[in-house]
Write a structure and sequence with these properties.
CATH class of the largest domain: Mainly Alpha
Structural class: mainly alpha
Number of strands: 3
Shape: globular
CATH superfamily of the largest domain: GntR ligand-binding domain-like
Order of helices and strands: HEHHEEHHHHHH
Oligomer: single chain
Strand content: under 5%
Radius of gyration: 18 Å
Number of domains: 2
CATH topology of the largest domain: Four Helix Bundle (Hemerythrin (Met), subunit A)
Length: about 220
């Protein structure tokens, strides 16, 4: 098998690092990314970083503004609707066909535990990160590398969409118990009920985000 060039392999790795930073909330929507700062922090050349920027711009995670630089994207209403459509297709199907002893179920359980710990100290960004891990674990139930890779990119876009919410507690707090309920249904073998609960949950989450987007665009 032909090996990838070192520079290309590094670009893939750095792109994944930046996606993760977006997913866990370290990089926020609308933030300008400094080439000098990031290249030093990640210990890479500016040429490599520019290639990474190009890839992430194609994915919709970054936006290039002439004479201004590279910024973290802010998803619009159409993007939010599309993201949730994909989520329902992937996550609900993964739950329907999952089995309780799948290793990803333990990751779901740990994500709920982590969310409750963050909730105690009102660390809502931490709760959000635990929630993202819960849903990533649901996708891992599919055992599909392609779906897992696709969802990894969607997770980063989704975290950016959450930037429309001034108070992340509104989005994250209610879903800790909902995640627990989905987990209990899956544990008891009620896969279809778990999928239906998740489908309703995602519709509610989508409506919450779209309402926040409208308020952001048309403040009263």
């Amino acid at each position: 098998m032909k090996k990838q060039p070192v520079t290309q392999t590094l670009s893939v790795s750095i792109a994944e690092t930046i996606r993760n930073k977006i997913t866990v909330g370290e990089i926020t929507p609308g933030q300008r990314l400094s080439e000098a700062t990031l290249s030093e922090e990640l210990d890479i050349s500016r040429n490599t970083l520019r290639e990474v920027f190009r890839v992430l711009t194609q994915e919709g995670l970054l936006t290039y503004a002439p004479n201004k630089g590279v910024f973290v994207s802010v998803p619009d209403m159409a993007s939010i609707i599309d993201i949730y459509q994909v989520r329902r297709l992937i996550e609900c199907d993964a739950l329907i066909h999952a089995y309780p002893l799948h290793p990803a179920v333990q990751k779901m359980k740990q994500a709920v535990i982590d969310a409750r710990e963050h909730e105690k100290c009102e660390d809502w960004v931490g709760v959000g990160t635990a929630n993202m891990k819960f849903h990533t674990a649901i996708v891992e139930l599919s055992d599909s590398e392609r779906l897992i890779k696709l969802y990894r990119n969607i997770s980063a876009e989704l975290r950016l969409a959450f930037g429309h919410l001034n108070d992340p507690q509104i989005l994250y707090a209610p879903y800790i118990n909902k995640n627990q309920s989905i987990l209990e249904l899956l544990d008891s073998g009620h896969n279809l009920d778990a999928a239906n609960a998740l489908r309703s949950y995602l519709h509610l989450s989508e409506r919450t985000l779209l309402a926040a987007y409208k308020r952001h665009q048309f403040p009263t």
